[in-house]
Amino acid sequence: MAWIVLFVAGLFEVGWAVGLKSTEGFTRPIPIVLTAISLVLSMGLLGWAVKTLPLGTAYAVWTGIGAVGTAIVGIVVFKEPATAARLVCFGLIVAGILGLKLFSPQ
Q: Which domain holds residue 52?
C-alpha cells in the first residue's frame, strides 16, 4: 500500500511542479490555490509513505516520479524538446525508480 501512496504522491508532485508554471509568477489566484493543494497532498502522502518505506528510497522515488512526470508534461503540453539524450536520461531515472522498488526491503 505504501508504494501506491508514494506513486500518487509523485503524481501530485507533477501537479504542483506544472502548476508553478500556470501561476505565472504567483500572479494568478486559482492556479496558486490548485498548486498549493497539490503540494500539500504530495507532501502529506510522502509523509505517510515514509512511515513504512525507507526515507531515502521513498524520497528518491518521489522525486524521480516528479522529475520524469514533469518532463513528460513539458514535452507533451509545452512542446519542450524530446531529444534522444533527454529521453535516455529520463529512462535512466525510471530504471533507478524500478531498481529501488525491486530491491527495497518493503
A: 1-103
